[in-house]
Amino acid sequence: MHCKISLFLIILLTSAGLLGCILEPQKEYDSSQETPSPNTEKRTEREDFYVETVAADLNVPWAIQPYEDGFFVTEREGRIAFIDKDGSVSRQQVELEEEVASQGEGGLLGFVLDEHFEENQTAYVYHTYRDNNSLFNRIAVIKKQGDNWIEQKPLLENIPGADIHNGGRLKLGPDGMLYATAGDADMENEAQQPEILAGSILRMELNGQVPEDNPLEDSYVFSYGHRNPQGLAWDENERLYISEHGPSGHDEINLIEAGQNYGWPVITGDATNSAMQSPLFHSGNNTWAPSGLSLHNRNLYATGLRGNQLMRFNLEEEEIEVVFSGEGRLRDVYIENDNMYVITNNRDGRGTPEEQDDRLLHLKNFEDHTE
Ligand SMILES: [Ca+2]
After folding, report:
1. Ligand 1 centroid, distance to 275 Cα (angstroms)
2. What is the pTM of this model?
3. C-alpha of residue 277 to centroid of ligand 1, in Å
4. Spacing, Cα 351 to ligand 1 middle (Å)
5. Residue 174 pLDDT exceeds 50
6. Staple partner for 107: which of 66, 102, 284, 308, CB 3.0–4.6 Å?
7. DSSP code per residue over 141-195
8. How many angstroms does the Cα of residue 330 sit away from the middle of ligand 1?
């Protein structure tokens, strides 16, 4: 009962916030720079609620990858934590051919296990690095050897990087290809140039080759015109959805079609252009600053950084709802049956960390609490 009232209030407050934004002049902030959270309210005690802390004292965790009875979680400064569902945490070093540049929004970001990890101990990572005083991102194959991970080979290097807008999500698609989100690296016009990797969704074979059926010839670029995409999820029909950070609000959820231009920086929000795709959902003048994305029962769930909340996007009804808030910045989400796992990001330099931050949270029976 309690939580239903809380949720109702949250929705009311959110609606009021939306109205407020329409009536007030647009605020000058840039959500995609993961701007500091202005939300100064203290976390509420919620014994009556459904949130449990699985693990605490994580160091800017970025990606959740389930494995057996726990999760591998990348930490942005360059390590991988294995978190057992019972809460024990062990940390693993990652030896890469280029040093992780944990600077601004960059660092050790995306991580995904190979489908045959059990046999080959192989995984893929996306990380920021420095070359001649410039920042770039790269994707590499790593192998678990004992308690450490050792790079086997690079798959793709020289993805433009910067202090902001590094993208960084990495996932295996239902087609067996590796997908990555590349930000515009603070060079917005490059997002409109399909031959440049910045501001794109990238697609590659697991050996680093360009797939023969990629939309642009001899290019990893699967779609372009993106600003700072950080979430990837597929539905049961293998359609790809992404989340991306907009400028001053106008955050987006997009349905991705091969070879299409998603408009940044030419169009945002409800603007249209016959040569470009408009988003399925956008935040208007509100800010979600969406990062991790997960799909469950025709609902997309997106974690919010500056938005400090987990959003639900109902793909059938085209409705948007706040599922959960009050724990600060949220970076990634993973759903397993009726269990949702979320990582906070209050230590990423833009939040207000509290004693146990950052944490892996478990939302039990989350669907019961969101009706
Ligand atoms: Ca767009």
Report:
1. 12
2. 0.88
3. 7
4. 26
5. yes
6. 102
7. EEEEETTEEEEEEEEEEEEE--SS-----EEE-TTS-EEEEE--TT-GGGGG-TT
8. 22
